[in-house]
Write a structure and sequence with these properties.
696 residues; N-(1-d-carboxylethyl)-l-norvaline Dehydrogenase, domain 2; 4 domains; 8-stranded mixed β-sheet; 6-stranded mixed β-sheet; 49% helix; binds (S)-3-Hydroxyhexanoyl-CoA
């Protein structure tokens, strides 16, 4: 008998308790244990079998670490069929999360009971596959096609109450899964209940499956798994159970063999690995309960909102009472949003805006905070003044953080007498919504201050990434490069609209020019002016047509006009006819004869620039691992999750081909397209970025 499933008798009931921490994933040993357990129960003459999970949860799904390897018998669909075919009454008792293959085991059982806090669902599409052990066949028989399509294609988790209403479970009871399961099984024995296989229920009624497929495909922006799952549900309506199972298995393996599946699983594990830095093992973070935020503009108000919503108290420092009140208005506006969505109630709203938030205009108000974040104007002199004042007033051990997006954190730290306490915490706007937090570690930042940054990120439910000091850190530095590659393509003949369309077809929520309009064209203008003032390398190609838009007062969405024209109060965009003219004028001025670009070439150049700069960022140690870059782009820059991140994408494309393309592009512009030494090294050694992730 396998250790992963412990067998025990409780009178007429054979108990199969899963013991495969941390989430009772259905690895080979667990599957074998279930099959052996049911056989033994039958042989011993038990009347019922109870299946439940020890520890935090029922089965949370198939073991994702086995994906991509040859499946080992017994296969999960056969395990579910074996349970279902048993002449004994099979009861599953669910607590924690019954997800994916976990819920499929429960659906293969004859009766299902759950604790009130249990959650369940079929989230397979979120990792690029679909239910592959009968989920698409059994669930529709229980809850109908329409609801099944919604549940399976969204991958959402359903609470016990809703599951009961839908008919996924038979009962909710308070207690341990073992206690409630034993009581339920005994009751069923006493009532002489019979096995109740879902597979023997009639086929559910169908719907217009082609329309459902198209609607889901459109919604998932090129991600294949949700739409493919619709075809599985279709089989439940149209085919006998056994043939439906076959169809499900074919579709499941179709998806298993896609790059999208690899990308999504890379994202799943990287999202969990990114906050676990080997260097922080055993380092205790400092306590953070009260924080200070300096500057209550959009960014500062967003940071304060995130902190308040996650149980911290906030002192908001502004230059004047009026500005402080305006900041409070912004925070209250953000919190209203949370109130509307039911994330907080009216009492909490009042508490957060009144008791948990203090307004101040004097630095003395920050003398007792545990951590302070400044979100003031992006100018080194201004930042230095702020940090000099913080150094004078903050208590010893307080963490002093800057939210700068590109300034040198070492220089900021050096102005204080406590550089070990200074760190960059780079939030992304709107800070109470965007998931990414870059934690910028300066030369002298103490390890427990880094640990505090990560602990704060966790409190605020962010995906935190460690970054080193350089212009733009990880994300904005890479952004500057791929954005430049796009600008070069415009000079050479592409249009912003073709570029946006090509990248949106690749999976980005918005193309780079639509993003510029959203962020405000003044931001890019300021960066170009700064770079020109600092002195650009004479070999660097500059573009100036967008300056003309800014000079005319067009900053994108906020002024109604930029690359696109926006109707008042709407985000619907139509190309701005002035833009091609401005571009044509710059081409003429620079004596460039425009050429045509295919959409494929646009994507390839854009991605090659992104990967090349990302490889430099990793090679220089600004990012510790390739997965740190991947998570930065995924959570801060709208990179399509199903490609896994730029470096996962690069691995899947093949690094030698990508390097070959970069070298070919360098024949036109050998200043911009300088191959990253790390990329050259990996190609020479026949290795991948993934190999570097494995170093831990
Ligand atoms: C499937 O079932 C296919 C079938 O339909 C058909 C098959 C033929 N496998 O998230 P946490 C690890 S597809 C392996 O931090 P939480 C995770 O990496 C599967 N490992 O905890 C982490 O490891 P580490 C469908 C897994 O409490 C640790 O467990 N199921 C798996 O915040 C703790 O995880 C899903 O997609 C797994 N399935 O959340 C469910 N799951 O400590 C995916 C987790 O080394 N899982 N690990 O970093 C989840 O959604 C969350 O993990 C869960 C717990 C809600 C369960």
């Amino acid at each position: 008998m396998s250790e992963a499933i412990q067998y025990e008798r409780a009178g007429d009931i054979a108990v199969l308790a899963a013991n495969n921490p941390p989430v009772n994933a259905l690895g080979q040993a667990v599957r074998q244990g279930l099959v052996d357990g049911i056989a033994r129960a039958e042989k011993e003459g038990a009347k019922a079998v109870l299946i439940y999970g020890e520890g935090a949860t029922y089965f949370a799904g198939a073991d994702i670490k086995e994906f991509g390897k040859t499946p080992q018998e017994p296969w999960l669909p056969d395990v579910c069929a074996r349970l279902e075919a048993s002449p004994l009454i099979v009861v599953s008792s669910i607590h924690g999360t019954a997800l994916g293959g976990g819920l499929e085991v429960a659906l293969g059982s004859h009766y299902r009971i759950a604790t009130p806090k249990a959650r369940m669902g079929l989230p397979e599409v979120l990792i690029g596959v679909m239910p592959g052990a009968g989920g698409t066949q059994r669930l529709p028989r229980l809850i109908g096609v329409e609801k099944s399509i919604e549940v399976i294609t969204s991958g959402r988790q359903i609470g016990a109450k809703e599951a009961l209403e839908l008919g996924i479970i038979d009962r909710i009871a308070e207690g341990t899964p073992r206690e409630i399961g034993l009581a339920y099984a005994q009751e069923l024995i006493d009532q002489d209940a019979k096995p109740r296989p879902v597979s023997e229920m009639p086929n559910p009624d169908g719907v217009d499956f082609d329309a459902a497929y198209d609607a889901v495909l459109k919604k998932s922006r090129g991600q294949l798994s949700p739409a493919t799952a619709v075809r599985g549900v279709q089989a439940a309506a149209e085919l006998p159970f056994d043939q439906g199972m076959k169809r499900e298995r074919e579709l499941f393996f179709e998806l298993m063999n896609t790059d999208q599946r690899q990308g999504l699983i890379h994202a799943f594990f990287s999202e969990r690995a990114v906050g676990k830095l080997p260097e922080l093992k055993g380092v205790e973070p400092r306590d953070v309960g009260d924080i200070g935020v300096i500057g209550g503009g959009t960014m500062g108000a967003g940071i304060a909102t995130a902190a308040l919503l996650n149980g911290l108290t906030v002192t908001m420092l502004e230059m004047s009472q009026e500005a402080a009140e305006a900041a409070k208005g912004r925070i209250a506006g953000n919190l209203q949003g949370a109130l509307k969505r039911g994330k907080i109630n009216q009492d909490q709203f009042t508490h957060l805006t009144e008791a948990a938030l203090t307004l101040a205009t004097d630095y003395g108000a920050l003398s007792n905070v545990d951590l302070v974040i400044e979100a003031v104007f992006e100018d080194m002199e201004v930042k230095k003044q702020v940090f000099t004042k913080l150094d004078a007033v903050c208590k010893p051990g307080a963490v002093l953080a800057t939210n700068t997006s590109y300034l040198n954190v070492n220089e900021i730290a050096a102005i204080t007498k406590r550089p070990q306490d200074v760190i960059g915490l780079h939030f992304f706007s709107p800070a109470h919504v965007m998931k990414l937090l870059e934690i910028v570690v300066a030369d002298k930042t103490a390890p427990d201050v880094v640990a505090t940054g990560f602990a704060l990120g966790k409190t605020l439910k962010k995906v935190s990434v460690r970054a080193g000091v350089c212009d733009g850190f990880i994300g904005n530095r890479i952004l500057a490069t791929y954005r430049t590659a796009a600008d070069h393509m415009i000079l050479d003949g592409a249009s912003p609209y073709q570029i946006d369309d090509a990248l949106e077809a690749f999976g980005f929520a918005m193309g780079p020019y639509a993003v510029s309009d959203l962020a405000g064209l003044d931001i890019g203008w300021a960066v170009r002016k700064r770079k020109r003032a600092e002195g650009m390398d004479p070999r660097a190609r500059d573009t100036n047509y967008a300056d003309r838009l800014c000079e005319a007062g067009h900053f994108g969405q906020k002024t109604g006009k930029g690359y696109y024209i926006y109707e008042k109060g709407s985000r619907t965009r139509t190309p701005n006819p002035d833009v091609p003219e401005l571009i044509a004028a710059e081409r003429a001025e620079k004596d460039i004869t425009p050429r045509a670009f295919t959409d494929d070439e646009i994507v390839r150049r854009y991605m090659a620039a992104m990967v090349n700069e990302a490889a430099k960022v990793v090679g220089e140690g600004i990012a510790r691992r390739p997965l740190d870059v991947d998570m930065t782009l995924l959570f801060g820059y709208g990179f399509p999750r199903y490609h896994g991140g730029p470096l996962k994408w690069a691995d899947l494309q093949g690094l030698p081909d990508l390097l070959g393309d970069i070298k070919r592009y360098a024949e036109e512009d050998d200043y911009f397209w300088q191959p990253a030494p790390l990329l050259e090294q990996l190609v020479a050694e026949g290795r991948t970025f993934e190999d570097l992730n494995k170093k831990g």
